[in-house]
Amino acid sequence: MKLDTFFREAFLKRLEKLGFEEEEAKFMVLGSGFARLTSPEYALMKGKEFLEHCEIRGGCGQAFTDEPQECVLKLEEVGLLNLDKPANRALFFSALNALMSLQGEIEGAVHCVKAEADRCGELMAEEILRNYGNVKVVHVGYQPGHIKALTRRLSRVYVTDMNPENIGKERFGVKIFDASHNERLIQEADLALITGSSLINGTLFQLLEYCEKHGTPYLIYGVSAIGAAKLAGLKVFCPFTHKTLRETF
Asked: What pLDDT score was predicted for residue 166?
């Protein structure tokens, strides 16, 4: 079974169980004004990415996207979206997150705000040292709070990104490689840290295949993949999620 089919069927089964086929999902676009992160280097603060925010009966879920949309759709329509399109994947997985949060299947899928993103990096470094030791890591996706903390605490950190503005630059003493280096660096690393946004751009499961091929453990970070990871039994690190927008103010 294709993974998209797996997630679609899981979504539609929940709608049928709850009788939510005709229920509306409300989508809105959130950016820097919502997040108020501490560094202008975050993609949200640069306006390069946005959060697709979905609300279903007060349940909230989000997913990163560079093709944001504001709309209202019936949940049955969401479940039938063409998931080959990244913009539709952002709608679908933000709605899946909202639905699973509403049901209590996940703790929450609203992005962290203010200094929480920096603190996330500190907790990530502590988690790695506690569970893996001072290992070589590859961080797929440039997140400045993570990279700052990891380079302070770990002896070797590799970073890759898909944003041309970041590729080739040096940040916190490490060079940012483009995504063509992902497999090589996953092979060289002892642990792969993979952005949940890769679920939306369609690269997550290729990255996980690299990890399996080379025997490299992984952690997925970020709100985009929280619901999907729960369904697929994947490991996620995202310590500062919120249930609602109200919690972020």
From this structure: 96
239 Cβ neighbours under 8 A, 6+ residues apart: 120, 123
> In angstroms, rounded to a whole number, what is the distance separating the alpha carbons of residues 133 and 74?
47
- Does residue 45 sit in helix, strand or coil? helix
* 132 and 91 both lie in a single domain: no
Instruction: Please report the pLDDT score of residue 4 as a whole number.
Output: 85
Rounded Cα distance between 123 and 35, Å, is 19
* Six token digits for residue 67: 């093709």
172: left (phi over 0), alpha (psi -120 to 50) or beta: left
Q: Is the pTM of this model over 0.85?
A: yes
Please give the Cα distance from 218 to 212 (Å, whole number). Answer: 9
One-letter identity of residue 30: L
15 and 85 in a common domain:
yes
* CATH code, 184: 3.40.50.11590
Q: Which residue has the tokens 């499961």?
A: 205
First vs last Cα of the chain: how many Å apart? 42
How is 139-194 classified by DSSP, letter by letter? EES--HHHHHHHHHH-SEEEEEES-TTTTT-EETTEEEEEGGGHHHHHHH-SEEEE
- Looking at every residue in the chain, the average pLDDT score rounds to 96
Domain that holds residue 54: 3-111+243-248
CA 15 – CA 144 distance, rounded (Å): 38
What digits encode the pLDDT tens for the residues 95-123? Answer: 999 999 999 999 999 999 999 999 999 99
- Selection from 198, 153, 155, 157 nearest residue 49 by Cα: 198
